[in-house]
Design brief:
Length: about 260
């Protein structure tokens, strides 16, 4: 039965959702920017389905949170819980192209074999020093501190590397007490520092020239097209909710600047 969510800023209330405290902190910190709901159709605000055997069906619930501000085109978070099997928080914050700002990305996924942790301030123009130098000067030390406390996530595919910064925090954590401790003591603190840096950049950002704004927009569109085409969650979402709904969700909500 659908919960009473009328817009994307209405509270997420998925029972036992692992990543709730991370989204709560995001909502709290965005409150100073006077956010308004990002327009999201009801079919994407809340979705539930069942999987597994007919004799023992398991419920999966997906809710989408979102907002916009004077400098943020879209901040949206995919919140998904599939019993004890999968728990997902996929948060992407996309700035308006009138400001020289990176994307903010946090992808936290619990699977039967462990937790996947990805956190970054992703550049729209990776080879543009004006766009990256100031951010990386601050981000690198934050990254070095927290990555040193975590196991590596492994190699990044070659074609994907252009969309991550040198401050990309990437880890695979075990399930159980060890992973829970790292999420509580390391991942949460790293997330807070990355988000604080990003929001400081937003607060201080000034409008850029029309010419540079156009260049930023092209970089943002390239990033969004890549994410839409290569979204690793496509198979999981299709299995839960069907191909047609999944393609509309990916292209109309998750990565809609194409």
């Amino acid at each position: 039965m659908q919960l009473n969510r009328n817009n994307s800023l209405d509270p997420i209330s998925i029972s036992n959702w692992r990543w709730a405290s991370f989204l709560d902190e995001t909502i709290k910190k965005f409150s100073i920017f006077q956010p308004s709901p990002y327009p999201i159709e009801n079919d994407f605000l809340f979705r539930e389905s069942f999987f597994g055997s007919s004799s023992n069906p398991k419920k999966v619930v997906l809710e989408t949170w979102g907002l916009k501000t004077k400098k943020i085109r879209q901040a949206r978070c995919v919140c998904l819980q599939a019993g004890e099997i999968t728990s997902v928080m996929n948060l992407v914050i996309s700035p308006l192209n009138h400001y020289d700002l990176p994307f903010f990305g946090a992808d936290f996924v619990t699977l039967p074999n462990g937790h996947l942790i990805a956190l970054d301030l992703q550049p729209a123009l990776k080879d543009d020093m004006i766009h990256t130098q100031y951010v990386l000067g601050k981000l690198k030390s934050i990254h070095a501190n927290w990555q040193s406390k975590l196991p590596s996530g492994g190699d990044i595919p070659l074609e994907a590397r252009q969309y991550f910064s040198p401050g990309f925090l990437w880890s695979r954590l075990p399930l159980g007490a060890e992973g829970d401790k790292l999420i509580c003591q390391v991942i949460k603190s790293a997330f807070d520092e990355y988000l604080n840096l990003f929001l400081d950049l937003v607060s201080n950002a000034k409008k850029i020239s029309t010419e540079r704004s156009s260049k930023l927009l092209n970089g943002q569109k390239k990033y969004m097209r890549y994410r839409a085409e290569k979204d690793p969650a496509r198979g999981m979402l299709s299995g839960f909710f069907g191909n047609e709904w999944t393609e509309r969700y990916i292209n109309k909500i998750l990565f809609d600047l194409q």
